[in-house]
């Protein structure tokens, strides 16, 4: 009797654990993630999310150029080799060539479109869509929104993920722009805006709108090639409107408050671990032994330090060699020429875990959003050397908030870099301010991982959640900003005024005309 009761309790306990392990007690789902980018840093957030979903019992498949270094249960990598496509562009940056974004943007856009087209038509991906069914697809966005067409191939809901903050390029669900109150990324986080700020903001958004339309024009042929209308596929614009959810790597304490639709979700910090992983033994020993503190230097996943122009490399080395701190530098080859004794190098370093080490005092970074966020989260001030894209704005915001300094990569000298490093290390205001920013960023009702997980599973549970669709996304720009309504009301008022004016003229003629007629009759009678 006792043994049967014990068996029953074990069965109940096992059933309870099974229900807990699966989302809301439902069956596990098959989740596909397609991330056709040549930038490893862009996939880190989705990789972390997919590993979490796999732990919850879902079957996840990641199509990318960056498979996990260690296998994870329920997680499958499908490798498509595109990781070197940005190499020549990034190498030219490190050599000191022009980084004018007006010239670079078309090149990066073309490379991104070609990468996605190559991935979609690769045998690996084609095999997946022909042989398997999925419950949801998470699509990585980077200048390639024609990827949303795979919804028709997979016949499942789609979620768009962007590894940066809110942008008009990812606003496929019609989120209100609020130009009068929310500054554009290029204007900086000005809150509130002055009158002239709003003038500049309006002009920037106008240019942004034109650029976005131009990119759509360049993207359209890629969509038509893969999803031709004559074969029954929806139009390019309709396919974008059919996206169920948009997630992006931001949090409002890093920017300014703005309105979001329920299917626009901020999940900034997905790649940051609440409990850091153990560091490799050599890195752990190097940082533990840094009695004067340690500095981490990295130009991110795309920019290779070995491509630095000689004069810039010499300036950085000269500066670092005179510091008493230990330096750990992300360096992409086995050896570094003239490597100082206080410098340790590594090809791929666990950045988030390194920044979490108690002896880490400073991060010298290119200013990518992921790097800025991880540094702030772990309370490490920065010296930024922005290179391209949003990095100038990111570093400028850090300087404005008071937890870092900026050095121009174009004009870098040993003296400038040393001065910036010593200023941030020796002035306690930077370390104090970054702790304040970290506290704001961490103060949330739920973690970014829990939030992202909830919404992915929400879309699965509700078969794409069509009730989240915002009717404003179906309107064109004239309708969205009530230009057609204002034109109609203006025309109506104009017609009404004309009618009233015409009526008044008629009445005036009747009154005045009758009086004049009587007066003429009297004058005529007098003459007779």
Find the count of extended strands (DSSP E, 2+ residues): 13
Structural class: alpha/beta
**Portion in strands:** 5-15%
Helix content: 40-55%
With helices defined by DSSP (H or I, 4 residues minimum), what is the helix count?
Answer: 18
Q: List segments where confidence is low: pLDDT < 50 over at least 5 consecutive residues.
A: 6-23
Sheet with most strands = 7 strands, parallel
Radius of gyration: 30 Å
Question: What average pLDDT do the residues reach?
Answer: 88
Question: How far apart are the first and last residues' alpha carbons, in Å?
Answer: 137 Å
Task: Describe the fold and architecture.
- The structure is a single chain.
- By secondary structure, this protein is an alpha/beta fold.
- It is built from 18 helices and 13 strands.
- The protein has helices at residues 2-21, 40-55, 87-94, 101-120, 123-131, 150-154, 195-226, 236-241, 281-288, 310-321, 351-355, 369-377, 391-401, 414-426, 428-442, 448-461, 477-480, 483-527; strands spanning 30-34, 59-64, 75-79, 136-141, 158-162, 245-248, 264-266, 294-298, 326-330, 343-346, 360-365, 382-384, 404-406.
- The strands form 2 sheets. A 7-stranded parallel β-sheet has the order 3-2-1-4-5-6-7. Strands 10-9-8-11-12-13 form a 6-stranded parallel β-sheet, with helices on both faces.
- α4 runs parallel beside α7 (195-226) and α10 runs parallel beside α14 (414-426).
- The chain is globular and about 125 Å long.
- Residues 6-23 have low confidence and may be disordered.
């Amino acid at each position: 009797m006792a043994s049967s009761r014990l068996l029953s309790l074990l069965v109940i306990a096992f059933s309870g654990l099974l229900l807990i392990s699966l989302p809301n007690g439902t069956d596990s789902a098959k989740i596909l993630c397609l991330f056709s980018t040549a930038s490893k840093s862009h996939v880190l957030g989705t990789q972390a999310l997919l590993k979490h979903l796999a732990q919850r019992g879902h079957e996840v498949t990641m199509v990318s150029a960056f498979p996990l270094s260690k296998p994870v249960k329920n997680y499958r990598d499908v490798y498509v080799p595109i990781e070197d496509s940005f190499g020549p562009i990034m190498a030219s940056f490190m050599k000191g060539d022009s980084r004018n974004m007006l010239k670079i943007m078309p090149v990066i856009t073309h490379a991104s479109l070609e990468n996605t087209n190559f991935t979609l038509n690769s045998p690996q991906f084609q095999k997946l869509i022909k042989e398997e069914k999925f419950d949801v697809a998470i699509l990585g966005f980077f200048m390639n929104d024609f990827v949303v067409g795979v919804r028709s191939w997979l016949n499942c809901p789609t979620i768009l993920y962007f590894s940066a903050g809110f942008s008009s390029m990812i606003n496929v669900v019609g989120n209100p722009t609020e130009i009068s109150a929310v500054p554009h990324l290029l204007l900086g986080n000005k809150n509130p805006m002055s009158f002239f700020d709003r003038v500049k903001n309006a002009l920037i958004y106008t240019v942004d709108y034109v650029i976005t339309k131009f990119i759509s024009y360049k993207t359209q042929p890629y969509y038509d090639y893969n999803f031709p209308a004559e074969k029954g596929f929806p139009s390019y614009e309709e396919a974008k409107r059919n996206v169920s959810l948009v997630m992006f790597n931001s949090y409002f304490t890093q920017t300014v408050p703005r309105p979001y639709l329920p299917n626009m979700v901020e999940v900034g910090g997905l790649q940051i671990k609440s409990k850091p992983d153990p560091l490799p033994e050599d890195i752990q020993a190097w940082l533990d032994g840094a009695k004067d503190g340690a500095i981490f230097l990295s130009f991110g996943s795309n920019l290779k330090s070995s491509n630095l122009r000689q004069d810039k490399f010499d300036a950085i080395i000269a500066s670092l060699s005179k510091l008493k701190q230990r330096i750990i530098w992300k360096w992409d080859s086995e050896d570094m020429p003239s490597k100082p004794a206080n410098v340790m190098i590594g090809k791929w370093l666990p950045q988030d875990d390194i920044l979490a080490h108690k002896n880490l005092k400073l991060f010298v970074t290119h200013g990518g959003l992921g790097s800025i966020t991880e540094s702030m989260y772990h309370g490490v001030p920065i010296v930024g050397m922005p290179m391209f894209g949003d990095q100038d704005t990111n570093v400028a915001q850090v300087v404005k908030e008071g937890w870092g300094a900026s050095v121009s990569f174009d004009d870098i000298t040993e003296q400038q870099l040393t001065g910036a490093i010593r200023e941030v290390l020796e002035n306690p205001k930077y370390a104090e301010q970054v702790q304040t920013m970290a506290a704001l960023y961490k103060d949330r009702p739920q973690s970014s991982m829990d939030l992202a997980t909830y919404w992915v599973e929400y879309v699965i549970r509700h078969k794409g959640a069509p009730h989240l669709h915002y009717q404003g996304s179906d309107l064109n720009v004239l309708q969205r900003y009530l230009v057609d309504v204002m034109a109609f009301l203006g025309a109506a008022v104009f017609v009404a005024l004309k009618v009233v004016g015409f009526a008044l003229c008629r009445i005036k003629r009747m009154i005045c005309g009758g009086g004049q007629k009587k007066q003429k009759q009297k004058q005529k009678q007098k003459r007779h």
